[in-house]
Amino acid sequence: MPASPTTSPPLDDSASLPDQSPNQSDNKPSRPNRPKPNRLKLTYDIVMMIIISIDLLLISIDAILMSNFSAHIAGWLTIGEALSWYQNTLHDPLRTAGGFFTIFLIVELLLRWMIAIKEKAYYRWFFFPFVHWYEVLGCFPQLRALRLFRAVVIGRRLYQLGYQVLPQPWINRIKFYIDLLLEELSDRVILTTIQNFRQELTDPEAHKSFIESTISRNRDEIEAVLLSLLRTELTPKLQELTAASGGGSILAAEVGNAIEEGLANTPELRRYLRMIPIAGSLIESQLQHVGHNIGENVVYALNQRLLDPKLLDSLMVAIARGVAQINTDNTALDTLISSIIEDSLTEFEAQVKVQQWKHQDMLNL
Question: Is 120 left (phi over 0), alpha (psi -120 to 50) or beta?
Fold first, then answer.
């Protein structure tokens, strides 16, 4: 008999979807959180950018064609009649159109100022012209080139919203030349400052005052650095020296031998001891032996006392404090600090002179 159809369990919607591992979700590129653009403001910015671009284009063309350079080029290319026709026919209408552009920009600026006052966009109502100074100055016919700043600001705002105003290679090129200009300007300022500082240091009074003020302000730091160096360098060396001499046994033996020889080479002592019958020579030998032992015991005692951690540390502190309080009126110290300053300035100047922009691939050098 035919097999009865088996009812399959209802399919879960999640089961029909492909498995998404956490790694797959993590590999998705995260988009930067950009503010949602206002369509009206976005459209307004685009329209204003087009208007300003047209205005700047007309201004540039008119300035070029009305210049003496264009007259020379037109004469060389034998198109002087066309240039004269433009200067006599189209120049005045373009100036009139530029005046309408200027009036439009003034009215638009005043309207935005009123809107900013109504919305209290700034802390004070008169802050608007100071914030938008390039727009205010761009309303003057002689400073119409400043309208380019308005186009740049609008383009930057659109770029931040995610709209590609210019091709990316153009943007990279613009950024490169801006960085180049800023690097060259900052290098010139830094090199001039270094040169002025060197000239100031040639004055003995200024040089001495600089050293005194520098050391006086940093005496605590100098003391701390010296103490750290003494603790990390001198203390282990003393301990290694003591360990290398067998805990001071070599030094103790030498001091004992020196005392023994000193007693043996003292003629008065020998003369007085030989006046004692029978026991004089015995007392002399025992006295030399006792002197040898005394010398060794003194050295051992000094090693124990001087290499005591607490006593040694207090000695290091006293040395560091004494060196930190050094008198700045010292020729050797002045020469040393002058050499350090000169070497530092030379190295810094050499680093500043390295033109980092030459190491980029933008110029294909």
Answer: left
pTM for this entry: 0.42
Give phi and psi for 242, each to the nearest 5. -65, -40
Helix extents (H) in 275-363: 280-306, 309-324, 331-352
Cα 166 from Cα 52, distance rounded (Å):
16
CB within 8 Å of 120: residues ≥ 6 apart: none
User: Cα torsion for 25, 27, 32, 33, to the nearest 10°?
Assistant: 10
User: For 360, which DSSP code?
Assistant: S
| pLDDT tens figures, 270-296 | 666 666 666 666 776 777 777 777 777
At 105-137, the pLDDT tens digits run 899 999 999 999 998 888 888 898 898 888 888
Gap between the Cα atoms of 101 and 151, Å rounded: 14
Distance (Å, rounded) from C-alpha 203 to C-alpha 188?
A: 24
How far is the C-alpha of 146 from the C-alpha of 56, rounded, in Å? 10
Burial of 296 (0-12, 13-18, 19+ CB in 10 A): buried
On whether the CB atoms of residues 266 and 234 are closer than 8 A, the answer is no
